[in-house]
Every structure is written in structure tokens, then in C-alpha cells.
Write a structure and sequence with these properties.
With about 270 residues, the chain is of the alpha/beta class. The protein has two domains: about 220 residues, TIM Barrel, CATH 3.20.20; about 45 residues, no CATH class. Helices cover about 45% and strands about 15% of the residues.
């Protein structure tokens, strides 16, 4: 299934881990970085390691991801060692800026571990192509608010159009799945959350970072093909089956290969999700 919602949970709040897994979030990101104060990071890592060993059910293991502390910080090395000793196979690397650093993180995490490169700076955006082509990176994610601070951008709407397009272009060029959009800070404004999700989808993003369980449903729903999309895709493929070698039209519009490919992706995503 296409992973659409990435729900952060503080790494020093183990009582929330299972609650986060009880939501419909596609990935639960246990955060050892921004969500944990510096003087609590060691204790948080130790508590997480214990929970991963004794409290994580086998069925939930594929849904857990760990955001380690950034490369070069005092906590990074031990975070990665903990990941290597755990059953977790997905890691989010913050402040991603250098492809070789990501390769090094992947090597130390162990075989089979895939990375989400969280790009949060001007340097990261400039280096995005090499980051996206690093073989251990499975997806790009946009740390939009940290990027705005670094770049001096005073707004998170149209001011970021160029950067969002870069995420989509470089992901596609590298053969990655559609990137993950940044967080919406509001947890109670349903209209704003829905609007942000819709905007991200229009740009070509395939998922979104969530900071509260109340955001998850809107993200899952907003990035999934709608019933209307699915019905249209079925009509396209039915017409194609009737006339596989000739020109076809659906709803009064000519259909060519890119349209057929889109229809196939929509139908495939619905089948997998079910």
C-alpha cells in the first residue's frame, strides 16, 4: 500500500507508542530528535530500545520508523547502534544534506534498512538530486518549517511552490515514490488540514507528516484516490480492453498512454489498499 501518513510520537513518551499504533497511521515515527530535549535523549533511546524488544508486536513492526538524531550530533552514533540491534527496518534521517552521509548511516544500520531523507535546509534542497539517487534512500520528505527558518522564507504557501516542485521532480527522476509533504501545525482546523493535503496532492506529493492523531484520517483520505477517480480509471481501462490498439475516448476526451498509465496506478492503489 502507498504509505500516506507518517505520525510522529515523542521518543521519550513510551506510553504513547502503542496508542499511535492504534491509529490508522501508515507509519508511526518514533522521534528521538526534535521531540526530545537534549538532557532526555539518552534515557529516551534506552526506553525505546526496551520497548522495541519487549513491547512491540510482530504485526506492528513494519509500521514503526525511528527518526534518529542528525548525522554529526552527539547522539547520532548511539541512535544508529540501537536501530541496528532492533527489528526496525525504516529510519528517518533529519537534516539530510550529503548523500555520502546517508550511505554511511545505511551501512551502519544494517542490511535491508531503508531511509527516509528528511530535507530541511537550503543545502539539502541544492543537493536533493544526489540524495535522491543514494540507493539506501527510499523516499524524500520535506521538513518545510525548518527549511523556511534556514532560507528566511516568511510563509508556507506559494512561497514554497518552487521547492515543492523540486521534491516531486527529483523523486520522479530518481525513480522514488512520490515525496512526503511537511507538517500542518494546526491540529484542530479541519479545513486547513484538508486544504494543505489537497495542495500537496496537486503538487504531486504522495503523503504527509502528521504531528497529531487527529490529522491522520484527513491525510489518508486526501492522498487516496477518490471514488470518482476510481470510477474514471475503471472506465478508461474498460474502454482500453474493448479497443486495445485503437484510439479511445472517455468522457468526451481522447485518452493516450500517460492517461492510461494514470488510470492503472489509481486502480492498482485501490486494489492494494483493500
Amino acid at each position: 500500500m502507498s504509505l500516506r501518513s507518517y505520525l510522529f510520537v515523542p521518543g521519550d513518551r513510551p506510553e504513547r507508542f502503542s496508542k499511535a499504533l492504534a491509529t490508522a497511521a501508515h507509519q508511526v515515527v518514533i522521534d528521538l530528535e526534535d521531540a526530545v530535549a537534549p538532557d532526555a535523549k539518552i534515557q529516551a533511546r534506552e526506553g525505546l530500545a526496551k520497548w522495541l524488544e519487549t513491547g512491540l508486536a510482530d504485526v506492528d513492526k513494519p509500521r514503526v520508523m525511528i527518526r534518529v538524531n542528525a548525522f554529526g550530533t552527539p547522539w547520532h552514533e548511539d541512535d544508529v547502534k540501537m536501530v541496528r540491534a532492533s527489528p526496525v527496518m525504516r529510519v528517518m534521517v533529519p537534516k539530510a544534506e550529503v548523500a555520502s552521509e546517508l550511505a554511511d548511516v545505511a551501512m551502519r544500520c544494517g542490511d535491508g534498512v531503508s531511509l527516509i531523507a528528511l530535507i530541511e535546509s537550503v543545502v539539502g534542497v541544492v543537493q536533493m538530486r544526489s540524495i535522491a539517487h543514494e540507493k539506501s534512500v527510499s523516499r524524500l520528505a520535506f521538513g518545510s518549517f525548518d527549511y523556511c527558518v534556514d532560507a528566511g522564507v516568511e510563509g508556507s504557501g506559494h512561497e514554497l511552490d518552487y521547492v515543492r516542485s523540486q521534491f516531486v521532480i527529483e523523486s520522479r527522476f530518481a525513480g522514488l515514490v512520490a515525496p512526503v509533504d511537511g507538517v500542518t501545525l494546526s491540529i484542530d482546523d479541519a479545513d486547513l488540514i484538508a486544504a494543505d493535503v489537497a495542495a500537496g496532492r496537486r503538487f504531486g506529493f504522495g503523503g504527509k507528516l502528521c504531528i497529531h492523531p487527529r490529522q491522520v484520517e484527513a491525510v489518508n483520505r486526501g492522498f487516496a484516490p477518490s471514488d470518482a477517480d476510481f470510477a474514471w480509471a475503471e472506465r478508461v481501462l474498460a474502454k482500453l480492453a474493448e479497443n486495445p490498439k485503437g484510439a479511445i475516448a472517455v468522457d468526451g476526451k481522447l485518452v493516450d498512454k500517460p492517461i492510461v498509465d494514470r488510470a492503472k496506478r489509481i486502480v492498482a492503489s485501490r486494489i492494494v489498499a483493500n
